[in-house]
């Protein structure tokens, strides 16, 4: 089967990793898979067409923001309009050059939605599939009512025109069922268990020494530092409560994002600048190494639409590394953590509860070890190769 994925981000971005891993697993099953994607910094992209792990990747345009550093660069209104037009035309050209049995949109958004309507429905006279892995209205930083209306329109329209829908949470399954949309395949996020393993002990010892973490208890967050849908400030509030009680504890924030400067400032204001470490933007392979340093991994959440519709990669990747997770009991998180056997669940949006959950794990080595072992075993069902079977089922 020839499958083309239309995604509006690079394959190294967090959402992009979902689509690349699914594509790679499908390619290993014998399908021909091509990804038409938007690059985070197209001008600096050395190769716009290449094959990686059996998957063809074509970068056909620029993302809506330039993400080539720890803090993304935003385009002005005029330049953004030009970028969106060029990216839409680039993806349309990619569809014209890519005859396929299946066209599958990664995220129901304007750029890939418009190209699917024109290129797939009108020109190729085929139906397309849609993957919903977020609440697009609430998970994006949309600054005006008209922007929310545009994103809401495409999120409403595209699943209704699709031949089938894949979703990554039960919240989205219920939303599709209420709208009488079918078929729907539930495909949570996952992890490549073969490659996402802790690095050798000497590497961890050397990195711990380089960072000054010897003898420290490390609390880690791995992900985007964008407070509108990743409340890392909630984790900073919790760490402010933990710091006086556990003098050996440090906080490691792995990744970049538009609110990195603000979080640095907040850490400094609280006198925690020597106990909060920022890696800045790093590649996914390096993220694995930094996350493996942690005693505890944290997914801070509030009970909102964005959190309920999200299947956090950091949960699966932490379980694969044997790092216990603390998160809020929102959406699918309890089910993903085997009802608390593979991670600690606390009240969402409550810094005191989050602090207590983290501190309890840091104090109890035996509990951490038991939870780490349970997480590794439980996480085996979320290997991308197994999830690809559920993804492919929607085509049948």
List keywords for this structure.
single chain, 396 residues, alpha/beta, Rossmann fold, 2 domains, 8-stranded mixed β-sheet, 6-stranded parallel β-sheet
Outline the structure in words.
The chain is α/β, with parallel strands linked by helices and 396 residues long. The chain folds into 2 domains: 2-187, Glycogen Phosphorylase B (Rossmann fold, 3-Layer(aba) Sandwich); 201-382, Glycogen Phosphorylase B (Rossmann fold, 3-Layer(aba) Sandwich), CATH 3.40.50.2000. The chain has helices at residues 14-28, 77-96, 110-123, 136-139, 145-161, 170-178, 201-211, 232-245, 260-269, 284-291, 305-308, 313-321, 333-336, 351-363, 365-378, 384-393; strands spanning 2-7, 32-39, 49-52, 55-62, 65-66, 73-74, 102-106, 129-132, 164-167, 184-186, 217-222, 249-254, 276-278, 296-299, 325-328, 344-346.
Coarse structural class:
alpha/beta
Q: How many individual β-strands? A: 16
Q: What is the straight-line distance between the termini?
A: 12 Å
Tell me the major beta sheet.
8 strands, mixed
Number of domains: 2
Using the alpha-carbon principal axes, give the shape. globular
Q: Report the CATH superfamily of the largest domain.
A: Glycogen Phosphorylase B
Biggest sheet: strands side by side, in what order?
Answer: 3-4-2-1-7-8-9-10
Helix content: 40-55%
CATH architecture of the largest domain: 3-Layer(aba) Sandwich
Number of helices: 16
Strand content: 15-25%
Predict the CATH topology of the largest domain.
Rossmann fold
What would the average pLDDT be, to the nearest integer?
Answer: 95
**What is the highest CATH level, the class of the largest domain?**
Alpha Beta
Q: How many whole angstroms does the radius of gyration measure?
A: 21 Å
Low-confidence stretches: none
């Amino acid at each position: 089967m020839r499958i083309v994925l239309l995604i509006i981000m690079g394959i190294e971005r967090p959402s992009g990793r979902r689509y690349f891993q699914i594509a790679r697993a499908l390619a290993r099953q014998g399908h021909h898979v091509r990804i038409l994607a938007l690059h985070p910094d197209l001008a600096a992209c050395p190769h716009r067409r290449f094959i990686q792990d059996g998957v063809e990747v074509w970068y056909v345009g620029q993302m809506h923001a330039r993400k080539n550093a720890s803090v993304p660069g935003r385009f002005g209104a005029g330049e953004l309009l030009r970028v969106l037009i060029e990216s839409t035309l680039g993806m349309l050209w990619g569809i014209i050059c890519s005859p396929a049995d299946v066209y599958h949109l990664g995220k129901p958004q304007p750029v890939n939605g418009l190209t699917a309507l024109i290129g797939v429905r009108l020109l190729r006279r085929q139906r397309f599939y849609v993957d919903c892995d977020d609440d697009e209205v609430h998970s994006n930083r949309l600054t005006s009512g008209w922007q929310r209306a545009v994103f809401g329109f495409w999120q409403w329209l595209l699943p209704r025109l699709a031949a089938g829908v894949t979703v990554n949470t039960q919240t989205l399954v219920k939303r599709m069922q209420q709208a009488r949309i079918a078929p729907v395949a539930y495909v949570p996020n996952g992890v490549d268990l073969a490659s996402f393993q802790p690095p050798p002990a000497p590497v961890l010892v050397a990195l711990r020494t380089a960072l000054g973490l010897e003898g420290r208890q490390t609390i880690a967050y791995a992900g985007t530092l964008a407070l509108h849908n990743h409340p890392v400030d909630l984790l900073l509030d919790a760490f402010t409560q933990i710091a006086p009680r556990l003098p050996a504890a440090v906080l490691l924030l792995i990744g970049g994002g538009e609110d990195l400067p603000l979080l640095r400032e907040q850490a400094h204001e609280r006198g925690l600048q020597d106990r909060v470490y920022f890696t800045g933007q790093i590649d996914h392979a390096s993220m694995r190494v930094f996350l493996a340093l942690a005693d505890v991994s944290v997914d801070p959440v509030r009970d909102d639409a964005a959190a309920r519709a999200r299947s956090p990669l950091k949960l699966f990747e932490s379980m694969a590394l044997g790092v216990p997770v603390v998160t809020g009991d929102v959406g699918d998180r309890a089910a993903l953590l085997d009802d608390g056997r593979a991670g600690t669940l606390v009240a969402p949006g409550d810094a005191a509860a989050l602090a207590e959950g983290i501190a309890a794990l840091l104090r109890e080595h035996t509990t951490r070890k038991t939870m780490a072992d349970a997480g590794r075993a439980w996480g085996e069902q979320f290997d991308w190769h197994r999830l690809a079977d559920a993804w492919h089922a929607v085509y049948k």
